[in-house]
Design a protein that fits this description.
Blueprint (H helix, E strand, L loop, with lengths): L1 H30 L17 E3 L12 E6 L23 E3 L4 E6 L6 E7 L5 H5 L10 E4 L12 E3 L8 E9 L2 E11 L9 H11 L5
Parallel strand pairs: 3-9
Antiparallel strand pairs: 1-9, 2-4, 4-7, 5-6, 5-8, 8-9
């Protein structure tokens, strides 16, 4: 009888462990937090760095991004500027005519280019038709600054008043191959200038949602 009881206890333990392992596996498959750089683009959220056509297991060419503006949020008190390069905490609201200063976390020191392109709902467009989107797109070549450069920016650019306000993609390319993008929202000139950093943070919090 003791042997039978011991056998039943052992079987129960085995089944319990198997169930726990199954639950853990399920959580791991769908519940592990992937970085934004690894997410599939089912939805696009402004201020998040997305990789373009990245192969599974491939190290991203651009690991993180920081964007500063020269008109809105220039106060030092909890500014939306001066943030460390990030995957999902990137300033993304700017004004037309406002200079955007770009800082990257990347091992590649030259040969990268940034373009501002009207937001594309289908991310496959950047894979299939990237060259056709560049005709009127503002661009800047990006180069890692020297160690003694106090500003530390890789490049600067702006979107002129010739363009309408709204959503645009800041697309990073290696040669003519797009590798990553951040969606930005542009407002009219001087529209953000009067706002405090608290107001700008609130705006970004409200805008940081999937684009419909």
């Amino acid at each position: 009888m003791k042997k039978v009881f011991a056998l039943l206890v052992a079987m129960t333990l085995v089944l319990s462990l198997a169930a726990c392992g199954k639950d853990a596996g399920s959580a791991g498959d769908g519940g592990d937090r992937l970085t934004a750089a690894e997410k599939k683009q089912d939805t696009v959220i402004p201020g998040v760095l997305y990789q373009i056509d990245q192969k599974e297991g491939e190290e991203p060419l651009i690991r993180a991004v920081s964007l500063d503006g020269n008109q809105a949020g220039i106060d030092d008190d909890d500014s939306v500027n001066g943030l460390e390069p990030s995957v999902d905490k990137i300033r993304f609201i700017f004004m037309l005519q406002e200079w955007i200063s770009i800082t990257l976390d990347s091992d590649k020191t030259s040969g990268l280019t940034a373009y501002i392109i009207k937001h594309q709902e289908d991310p496959e467009t950047y894979i299939d038709s990237f060259a056709s989107l560049l005709d009127d797109a503002p661009m800047v070549e990006l180069n890692k600054p020297a160690d003694d450069d106090s500003w530390g920016y890789w490049g600067e650019m702006y979107l002129s008043e010739d363009y309408p306000t709204g959503y645009y993609d800041l697309v990073f390319a290696n040669g003519l191959k797009p590798v990553a993008k951040v969606t930005l929202k542009f407002f009219g000139s001087d529209e953000l200038t009067p706002k405090s950093n608290d107001e700008l943070w609130d705006m970004m919090k409200n805008e940081a949602k999937p684009i419909e």
